[in-house]
Write a structure and sequence with these properties.
The chain is of the alpha/beta class. The chain has one domain: UDP-N-acetylmuramoyl-L-alanine:D-glutamate ligase. It has eleven helices and 17 strands. The strands form four sheets. A nine-stranded mixed beta sheet has the order 6-1-11-12-13-14-15-16-17, sandwiched between helices. The chain has a four-stranded mixed beta sheet with strand order 5-2-9-10. Strands 3-4 form a two-stranded antiparallel sheet. A hairpin with a 6-residue loop joins strand 3 and strand 4. Helix 7 crosses helix 8. The protein starts with 5 loop residues before the first strand and ends with a helix. The model has no long low-confidence stretch (mean pLDDT 94). It binds adenosine-5'-triphosphate (ATP) and magnesium ion (MG). Magnesium ion binds next to loops.
Length: 332
């Protein structure tokens, strides 16, 4: 990198507490046949292990960017409490600038309790706290921000805030990437209208189907890219898809490694993909970096554990390319 790329991430910051033990083994519900966690009301259950870490998509992404070598800052809200302190400590120890982090002294930091099953799946009890209270005024306070890229994760459906960030980015020549949260996706029509303002939109398959039509991940990706410059759709262990409107790229699994905890898979993938693109990489290179980053993260407990360092040697992945029909070809 000649000049250090500057990137800021905006969104939630939470403390994550992982609970593990045989009492958390998922069982089949006899009626629905779905896997469920079940506890007798009033029971006291013994646990084998507790891991304290931090999460929130924007803080996880910030760590990817900082370890990649970008000049990274995080914009979000915490409370004046131990969870908020831990978030700051985690970000700072990874070299993320926290000077624009807003502390609400009367509020409580977001806090998630994750019940981790022995197979790596988890049930999450989320208290969003002040992480969901970022407001337009807070962004105005952040607006001295200088960056080449802005990476947005969940804004809890605060569209006025999203619109002011877009306006700021447009008027300051900043590229935008988004991994929208459930609050944004709930208002699909409103979100869809804003997609053209982004250089990159990344969602999982289920989220993609809230934004565009399509049955398969391939179809969803090619429909999503009609609204934005680069579209990414992830499909858990089935891999990922991306398109720049000309070609559709499909990547499988990076490697067949054990899954210990899938928390942060999506964040690691999307931020890894964005890091490569911001660094001038091609879509196949970005799919490889995103896949390697997420594979490394699902092999460890916690959303930030395992995030790659820039000097990690990557394996070459097999990536399939297909040409997408262009407008003229469609009407021909
Ligand atoms: N079980 C798994 N084994 C290996 N790789 C995985 C697994 N789950 C996810 N990945 C990798 O992570 C990427 C993103 O995962 P996924 O599609 O589940 O994202 P997500 O639903 O947004 O996740 P999150 O719940 O973290 O937001 C996948 O495309 C894949 O490369
Ligand atoms: Mg996700």
């Amino acid at each position: 990198m000649d000049k250090k790329i500057k990137i800021a991430t905006i969104g939630a910051a939470v403390q994550d507490v992982f609970l593990m033990g045989s009492a958390l083994k998922a069982k089949r519900d006899v009626r629905t046949h779905d896997f469920v966690e079940q506890f007798p009301l009033g029971a006291k259950l013994e646990l084998d292990k507790v891991v304290f870490s931090t999460g929130g998509g924007a803080t996880n992404a910030a760590v990817t960017f900082s370890r990649y070598g970008f000049d990274t800052s995080f914009l979000g809200k915490i409370g004046d409490d131990p969870a908020g302190e831990l978030i700051q400590k985690d970000l700072r120890s990874d070299g993320v600038d926290t000077s624009l982090l807003k502390c609400d002294i009367d509020g409580t930091t977001g806090y998630s309790t994750l019940l981790l099953s022995p197979r790596g799946e988890r049930t999450v009890l989320v208290y969003r706290g002040v992480s969901q209270e970022l407001e337009v005024e807070d962004f105005n306070h952040f607006a001295k921000l200088k960056a080449d890229w802005l990476y947005i994760s969940s804004l809890s459906g605060n569209f006025p805030l999203l619109e002011s960030i877009i306006h700021y980015a447009k008027t300051h020549d900043i590229k935008l990437a988004i991994n929208p949260g459930s609050g944004e996706l709930k208002q699909a029509e409103r979100m869809r209208k804003l997609l053209s303002d982004f250089s990159l939109v990344s969602v999982n398959k289920e989220e993609a189907s809230q934004l565009v039509d399509g049955d398969s991940a391939e179809e969803l990706t090619s429909n999503l890219v009609r609204h934005t410059e680069t579209a990414v759709v992830t499909d858990g262990p089935n891999g990922s898809y991306a398109s720049d409107g000309e070609k559709l790229y499909a990547a499988g699994m990076y490697e067949d490694a054990p899954v210990i905890d899938r928390t942060g898979a999506g964040d690691a993938f999307t931020s890894g993909f964005v890091a490569k693109v911001a660094d001038g990489g091609s879509i196949p290179e970005a799919l490889t970096y995103g896949s390697a980053n997420s594979t490394s993260v699902v092999g460890k407990i916690g959303a930030k554990e395992g995030i790659l360092m820039s000097d990690t040697k990557l394996k070459k992945m097999k990536i399939e390319e297909t040409k997408l029909p262009q407008k003229e070809e469609v009407h021909a």
